[in-house]
Design a protein that fits this description.
Blueprint lengths: L1 E9 L4 H17 L4 E3 L4 E7 L3 H9 L8 E7 L7 E10 L7 E11 L7 H5 L9 E4 L5 H7 L5 E4 L7 H12 L3 E4 H4 L2 H10 L12 E8 L4 H15 L2 E5 L8 E7 L2 E9 L8 E8 L4 E7 L2 E7 L5 E7 L4 H12 L6 H13 L1
Parallel strand pairs: 2-6, 3-4, 3-7, 4-6, 7-8, 8-9, 10-13
Antiparallel strand pairs: 1-5, 5-6, 10-14, 11-12, 12-13, 14-15, 15-16, 16-17
Amino acid sequence: MTESGTVWSAQDTNPSAIDAALRDLLKERHAAGEAVAPARVLNMVVVVDDQWRGEIANRLEKVGRYHGSRTIICAVEAGRAEIDARATVTAEDDEPGDTIAVAHEQVLIDVGPGHLEHLDRVVDPLVVSDLPTLVWSPHGHPDAVDALLGIAQIVLIDSIDEPRLADAVARASELRERAYVVDLAWLRSTPWRERVAATFDPPQWRPELARISAVTVRFRPDSLVAAVLLVGWLARRLGWRPGGLTEPDEQGRCSGTAEAPDGPVELRFEPDPTMPIPGLAGLTVETRSGMGVSLDRGPGGLNAGRRAPDGHESSWTVMGASRGEAGILGEGIRQALLREHGYTTALGVARELVG
């Protein structure tokens, strides 16, 4: 794949000038005889702290084909009063000799904290009309997100960024009332949900779903919300009524209960400090008949084990379960164009658990 780009930059500029520059950049490509068609699928607005702009740019570069058609990065710099900008139009040819190259546009805007409350005035002239707009603010700045909700339909969040479980659930619930929410904390549990479903899919094991008596979820200490969302998914799928959840202790452990049609279910949440990346480290499901199923993160996939009611034990490896943080972010951008309702129901259970 070959790549070429055209760049414009200006200091102390304004949104109208940036918009005009983007149009001129595309005109230049056509005037040079290039067959370039701008991608027109998704606007992506990213609000970042200035000192971390490089790290976020690197994460965006690794999402592959899922990056936004027009990406607008607003870098927040303390003390800044004016707006500086840099616009780039990059065209990629999948194969040499292609007649038309697809162009992706990126705008980097340097703004100050004073711009955030009215950031929609800066961004609105720059988004492509009639395309869905996704907002992502990985370093907080809720005032910027709130300002942009008037022009955005999707908000990308990572609930593990909130230090308290109750705050994470409350903020996600608030945003869910105003936009379609894609939560990276939820997407990290996707392979775990798939493997649990597959484990109980054989006809001889399906009756055990109604006999579940305990669920233990192991997670990186900052990822309790991901564990609670996984349990929320199980509760909704199996018809459990959630009870309360205790406050995390000094080690971050907490517990709760749920009422299943056939009896109570004990819920345990156990942090694993050895977990190197955000998300889940392991899961154990126990049933009243004596069956137990465990999944634990391991090299190249998940280490799975099952204890049958008669005591027989078996183990195997589920290959390729982890997509890495770049894969999680790419999936989050892809989900912006879909409507997956499992998260909403799991979030509802989480809200009940935290009261």
